[in-house]
Specification:
The complex is a heterodimer of chains A (about 200) and B (about 190). Chain A contains 8 helices and 2 strands; from the N terminus they run αααααααββα. Chain A has about 200 residues and is an all-alpha fold. The longest helix of chain A is centred in the last third of the chain and has 31 residues. By secondary structure, chain B is mainly α. The chains are: A mainly alpha (about 200), B mainly alpha (about 190). At the A-B interface, helix 2, helix 4 and helix 8 of A face helix 2, helix 4, helix 7 and helix 9 of B.
C-alpha cells in the first residue's frame, strides 16, 4: 500500500465528515469559531494517530471476540491523557471545548479507523492513516468554522474582516451549524454528480 | 429557589430549551441515520430514553460512591463508557429474557447506543453541572424525551421530503440538515420559557 494513497483517501477521497459522514456531533458543536475548530482538530489528530499505532501494535494480541471493548478502552485512556494535558496547558481551550473533549471517546471516526484499518495493517501505515484521516477531519472542521465565524461575527481568529452590519447571529447559534453543513454537503454532491455525468458521457 | 420548580425546570430544559439534538448536538449520528422512517425513530428514541435514565443513575452512584472517596475522578471518562457499555448489554439480555415484545421493538437499536454521545454526554453533564441524584434522573429523563420528540418529528418531515421535487444535489442528507436547521431555529423560541 502506498503512503500517498493513504493520504489521498484520508484527506479528500474518503473525507471523514464530508464523504463518510462520521463524527457529526463535534463537527456541529465546536465549529462556532476557527480557534475551537483548530483545537478540536489537533486533539483528534493526536488521539487518532496514537490509537491507530497502539491498536496496530496490539492487533495480534487482542482476541477478536473482545476487540471492540479493548479498542474503546485504549481510546478512552488516550482521551483522558489529552484532556488532562489540555486542562493543564491550554485552560481557555479546555473551557471552550467543554463536554466535547471527553466525548471524543465516542467519536465514530476513531473507532471506525481502529476497526477497519489499524487492526489489519502495519504500524507505520496505521500511523500515516491516523494522521491523514485526522487531517481530513480538521480540514473539514476548519472549512465549516471559517464560514460560521466569518458570517456570524464578521471576524476570523479575532481579526475583524466584515463590517458589523453584515453579521448574522444565526450562524454561530445551533441552527447555523446545521445550515452550513447542509449547504456544504449540497455543494459537494453537486460537483460529484457533475463529475459522474462527465465520466458517463465520455 | 424552591425545589419543585427547580426539578420541573430540569425536565423542561432537557426536553425543550437545551434539547440534546438541536441545541447540544449530542447523538447526531442516530438522528441522521435512523430517522428515515417514523416507526424506527420511535424505537430508537425509546431505547435512548431508557438507557439514558439507567446510565445516569448508575454512573452518578459510581462517581460519588466510588470515585470521589478514592480520588479517582480522572478516570471518569473511562469508567463511564464501560458502565454504559455494560448497561446496554445488560438491558439487552434482560429484555430478551423477560420482555420479548419490548426486545423485538427496541433490540436492534440497543447495540448502537453504546457509542451514542448523548448517553455519555448527559452522564458527564450531570456531574459537571453538580445536580443531585434526583436532578440527574430528571435531567436524563427530560433529555431522553427531548431526543424522542425531535427524532420523531424529524422523521415525519423526512418521510414527506422524499415526495417533494428537490434539486438533485440537495436530495437526501443536505436537505435533511437544512430542515434540522429550521427545527433548531424553532426550538430557540423555547429559550424564554424559563
Amino acid at each position: 500500500m502506498k503512503v500517498s494513497d493513504i493520504f489521498k483517501n484520508g484527506i479528500y477521497k474518503k473525507n471523514a465528515i464530508f464523504i463518510m459522514l462520521l463524527g457529526m456531533c463535534p463537527t456541529l458543536a465546536v465549529t462556532t469559531s476557527l480557534s475551537n475548530a483548530i483545537g478540536m482538530g489537533v486533539s483528534v489528530i493526536a488521539i487518532l494517530t496514537m490509537s491507530n499505532i497502539l491498536i496496530s501494535i496490539l492487533r495480534k494480541v487482542i482476541p477478536p471476540a473482545v476487540r471492540i471493548p479493548a479498542f474503546i478502552g485504549i481510546i478512552a485512556a488516550l482521551v483522558t491523557v489529552i484532556e488532562m494535558l489540555i486542562h493543564a496547558y491550554i485552560p481557555t481551550l479546555y473551557i471552550s471545548l467543554g463536554i466535547y473533549l471527553p466525548l471524543i471517546v465516542v467519536n465514530c471516526i476513531i473507532l471506525e479507523r481502529a476497526e477497519s484499518f489499524a487492526s489489519k495493517n502495519k504500524v507505520i501505515h496505521a500511523a500515516f492513516d491516523g494522521l491523514a484521516v485526522g487531517l481530513g477531519f480538521s480540514l473539514a472542521l476548519i472549512i465549516i468554522a471559517f464560514f460560521r465565524e466569518l458570517f456570524g461575527t464578521g471576524a476570523l481568529l479575532g481579526f475583524h474582516i466584515l463590517p458589523a452590519s453584515t453579521n448574522m447571529l444565526i450562524m454561530i447559534l445551533p441552527p447555523g451549524a446545521f445550515l452550513t453543513l447542509g449547504i456544504l454537503l449540497g455543494v459537494i454532491s453537486h460537483f460529484t454528480n457533475k463529475k459522474k455525468e462527465e465520466l458517463e458521457n465520455e | 429557589m424552591n425545589n419543585i420548580s427547580f426539578y420541573f425546570g430540569l425536565i423542561i430544559s432537557g426536553l425543550l430549551i437545551k434539547n440534546v439534538l438541536l441545541a447540544q448536538f449530542l447523538g447526531i449520528c442516530p438522528f441522521l441515520g435512523v430517522s428515515k422512517k417514523t416507526s424506527s425513530a420511535v424505537g430508537m428514541g425509546m431505547a435512548v430514553t431508557i438507557v439514558l435514565v439507567v446510565a445516569s443513575m448508575i454512573s452518578y452512584a459510581f462517581y460519588y460512591l466510588v470515585q470521589v472517596p478514592f480520588h479517582l475522578e480522572f478516570l471518569r471518562t473511562i469508567s463511564f463508557i464501560i458502565i454504559i457499555a455494560s448497561i446496554v448489554q445488560l438491558i439487552e439480555v434482560i429484555t430478551k429474557k423477560y420482555m420479548k415484545g419490548l426486545y423485538e421493538s427496541l433490540g436492534v437499536y440497543l447495540p448502537l447506543i453504546t457509542t451514542n454521545c448523548a448517553v455519555l454526554g448527559i452522564a458527564i453533564l450531570n456531574i459537571n453541572n453538580g445536580y443531585d441524584f434526583l436532578g440527574s434522573i430528571l435531567y436524563a429523563l427530560g433529555s431522553g424525551l427531548g431526543f424522542l420528540l425531535v427524532i420523531v418529528l424529524f422523521s415525519a418531515i423526512r418521510e414527506k421530503l422524499d415526495l417533494l421535487d428537490i434539486p438533485k444535489a440537495f436530495k437526501g442528507l443536505p436537505i435533511a440538515l437544512i430542515t434540522a436547521a429550521f427545527m433548531s431555529l424553532a426550538f430557540i423560541g423555547f429559550g424564554g420559557v424559563l
